[in-house]
Amino acid sequence: MTQQNQQDEKKPFPWHLVIFLAPALLIYVTFSVYPLLDTLFLSLFNTQQGESTFVGLQNFITLVTDDNWSDAFWNALLNNFKFFAIHMLLQNPIGLLLAVLLSSPKLRLSGTYRTLIFMPTMLSVVIIGFVWQLLLSPIWGISENFLYSIGLGQYFDAWLGKEGSALITLSFISVWQFVGIPMMLIYATLLNIPDDIVDASVVDGANPLQTFWYIKLPLILPTIAMVSILTFVANFNAFELIYAVKGALAGPNFSTDLMGTFFYRTFFGFQLQQGSASMGAAVATLMFLIILVGVMLFLFFVQRRIQRFQF
Amino acid sequence: MKIFNDLLSSSSRNVSKSVTVHAILLAYTVIALFPIIVVIINAFKTRKAIFKDPLGLPDSSSFTLAGFEEVLLRSNFGLYSWNSLVVTLIAVSLVLLLGAMAAWALTEYKFRGNFIVTFLFAMGIMIPIRLGTVSILSLMVELNLANTLTALVLVYIAQGLPLAVYILSEFVRTIPKELTEAARCDAVSEYKIFFCIILPLLKPAMATVAVFTMIPIWNDLWFPLILAPGEETRTITLGVQQFVGQYVTNWNSVLSALTLAIVPVLILYTIFSRQLIRGLTSGAVK
């Protein structure tokens, strides 16, 4: 018997492997990997006139420089960065604070608080958007009266209706809804810190603030970094909230336009503008690149530095 | 005496500290729940009471189900909920089954291309499937699946698989090798090993995956809006979105529609919250 035959006899074709792996791989590749790659490819064509012609990077140049496109594009991109910045400045610090409080030793009802605070995160963004739209509407006046009752009535305004405040208000709504995610993830990491490390610092005479700053914070930094990248991906992919509250036109006067709503309008068109698959693909490709760059930066710089810091 | 004093002051400091902690957490809990509660209580009130006393509970003079009647009788909410239920159940079951099979194959067997496939699935955790929408839509049109629930199910399986494969692979690694080796010595087939030994062991991890997969599917607006916007295939999220958009001025109906969309999720959440929190705190998603 030759070596080859022995090999063949030992390893018949692994049909079980194909049967275990193929269904998942087939669906995943057909409906996720292929469409993503095809979209990147499509962005190099022009399909406006029914036929598609290869135009190279022309769609991207149009998006960035053409008078009809560039204003909307840069506006959406800038708004998206503002949206993200507000989440980083509010959602993650508030989540951190809540997680620290929840993890204080011997806290009663911590499970109840955790469950209730996480509740809004479970609901559809569409529903949350409408709920806040009703609450903040000047017609109903529920928030106006509330502000008057605590003496701040003169500050009430139609926050969702004004160009200057609509995006910030929507960001606050989104922060309110998703604060549960950083809270839970950081809380889980805090629970996993061994007690003896904390006890040792207390024995050494550190006060609670010092213990947090020098012992706990360095240990939860990887989680905070991961929460940040999750926030980044979710924010640059956001669409539902704006669409539910403001519609595809992201009013007033596009002040709440994000990459997601811009993508939707470009692809499907709106009012007088015709939708374009190739321009939509170009916007999607740019969103893809932005997210990819964010994830890469995270993997190569943040995570590596944190690992070095840990050991 | 001094010791007693010290004890006293430190315990009173502890008490005031714990009061502060509770005050902050309670205040935030109220902020988190207040909007949801306001919507639900007002859905049961007459239009007049909604505007006159938005924060009051409904009483005998202000209680009404008019909004619910309007929503349930004059729109297709039953159909929408059914569509959501069908899509979510089928998609989640298939994500669990196919995800577990793939996770098992990728962790148990060494084969060429293992790394590439693992990497491909890992990418899907970070890159949103939504960015491929342009091609997904034309693919569905070519396959004659536009405006069907099948299109949604297929996309949601593709969307759910990466995280499922990742979490389940981590879990498969913790299963002792002796178990499968003993079975192989007894000449048990690979299929039987997976379906009779491994799959039952994966149950706790699968519950976690189920919760994490279910929520985004149930709540999604994007794909129903693009792939299945027809009246017959509308899901509950899309149905609420369009209903509320149309009846902006009919506050009773709007509040009832929102309540009808909120309550099932709240019920699901109370059933699964322990599983969800265990999944989050056991480090499965770290």
Automatic annotation (TrEMBL), chain A:
InterPro entries: ABC_transporter_permease, MetI-like, MetI-like_sf
Membrane topology reported for the UniProt record: Multi-pass membrane protein
Keyword Zinc-finger in record: no
Pfam families recorded: BPD_transp_1
Compartments in which it is found: Cell membrane
Location, primary (coarse class): membrane
CDD domains from the UniProt entry: TM_PBP2 (cd06261)
Transmembrane region(s): 12-37, 83-104, 116-136, 167-193, 213-236, 279-302
Domain ABC transmembrane type-1: start-end pairs: 77-298
Keyword annotations: Cell membrane, Membrane, Transmembrane, Transmembrane helix, Transport
Family: Belongs to the binding-protein-dependent transport system permease family.
Protein name from the UniProt record: Sugar ABC transporter permease
TrEMBL record, chain B:
Gene3D superfamilies linked to this entry: MetI-like (1.10.3720.10)
SUPFAM superfamilies: MetI-like (SSF161098)
Superkingdom, taxonomy of origin: Bacteria
Locations listed in the record: Cell membrane
Keywords, in A-Z order: Cell membrane, Membrane, Transmembrane, Transmembrane helix, Transport
Membrane topology per record: Multi-pass membrane protein
Family: Belongs to the binding-protein-dependent transport system permease family. MalFG subfamily.
The name this protein goes by in its record: Carbohydrate ABC transporter permease
Lineage of the species this protein comes from: Bacteria, Pseudomonadati, Pseudomonadota, Gammaproteobacteria, Oceanospirillales
